[in-house]
Amino acid sequence: MDLIISAAAQISTPLTLLAIVAGTIVGVIVGVLPGLGSVIGLTMVLPFTFSMSQIPAIALMLGVYCGSVYGGSITAIVLNTPGTPQSAATALEGFPMARRGEADLAIGWVTTASTFGGLFSVLVFVIAGPSLAAFSLQFTPIEYFALGLFAMTCIAGVSSGNLVKGLVAGALGLLLATVGNDPVTGDLRFTFDSFQLSAGIGLIPVIVGLFAFSEMFLRVLQLDRPGPEASEMRVGFRMPPWSAWRARLGMLLRGSLIGSFVGALPGTGAATSAFIAYSEARRASKRKDNFGYGEPDGLVACESANNAVTGSALVPTLALGIPGDPVTAVMLGALVIQGIAPGPQLFANHLDLIYAIFLCLIVVNIVMFLTGALGASLFTRVLRIPEPILIGLILIIATVGAYGVNGNVFDVWVALAAGVAGVVLRYFRFPVAPIVIGMVLEPTIEMSLRQGLILTHGNFWGFFERPIAAILFAITAMTLCWPLVRMGIAQLRKPRRH
């Protein structure tokens, strides 16, 4: 109890509270702007931490981290332009809600689910941190390959009833992600002697093109259904009623659990957890027929999952000194600069610091909720802008977002090409989300497969000798076969004609 009181006193100083508020607001803004994201946000504020003491510096970084993960969902809802890769799943249900005039309600769903997921991950971080860190050490490349394959089953959930087209789109995403350097040998592949392609095809430009550019092109061509009139648009933040939440508490808890588990595994991240949670929600929801048309179940699942990653991702970072992704790698560097040595001894010798981080995360998530609730009217008022002006603004913002990732004009051309391809794909009823899923998961799947084959001396059947991998393979097979089994059961239950 003394440690908790001491930690509360440390984070209640004016400088620490200011760092939390400022970091969270900056993080939300960074998340809203397409093409920036958590890594760039943390990199932007990193120099400010050099002259700060430990707790305010950590508070600032945590605020930017959590705020940026949440902020990407706002533009995903309002403009169908995910600000971050992990918000791509949010656009699948959030934007249809905005199109029918319920942007305020969609923001209410995602803000509350994000806060719950973040707070849930804090609980996991404190109670199960060391245990999760020890369990994550059991994951070899073979287990990561099995997890990547399981995550690919998300394609079935976002394929709008046409699994074949979804698999084709997912294969296209996998192919796009292989362009550039071979991760093992370093050889160039699929570059066609193009210097620009030697660095690969960026995920952010593709997301900007597939979602933002294609949506705007479709509006210009009037191939998509028009949105509601400006007078029908509701701006602001609207909290869903308790009756609606009560029906989705299981979905909220399931998404938080998925995010906490996936976040504790090094090398996965919020985008993977969001798509896994969305796929699971679509499978288990009683309202699965509404998915794709603005179903809150999908919003609750993916937003609670991607924000639950924020706390649990710190487990391997702090307990093992292993950064799980580029975001936690930047945070790890900031901690080292502050004189904090992450590792097994941190939880044993510096428990006061752990409690301070724990309390900072709680306050950050509360501030994040208030930022979303109070600032939502500013974000959703963009829907009242006349459509021709809005299209122009979105195209400008999206172009800047695509360019700003690497400061490379080639990325703008990639985004434009992805936008044109998105128009063609959507016109022929191909889902575009599987392309993003394929690009997100390809590095994990390819690298872990090749490393696993090295460990088993080229024997793929050796993968099934690993218990955790075998369980994941079995779950993947059941997930893929269940729709066929369900169809067979439905056929057997049909009354026979005599």
TrEMBL record:
PANTHER family, per database record: TRICARBOXYLIC TRANSPORT PROTEIN
Keyword Signal: no
Residues that span the membrane, as ranges: 20-46, 58-79, 106-132, 144-177, 197-218, 256-278, 353-376, 388-406, 412-428, 468-489
Pfam families attached to this UniProt entry: TctA (PF01970)
Keyword Zinc-finger carried by entry: no
Protein name: Putative tricarboxylic transport membrane protein
Domain named DUF112: residues: 17-437
Top-rank lineage group of the source organism: Bacteria
This protein's UniProt keywords: Membrane, Transmembrane, Transmembrane helix
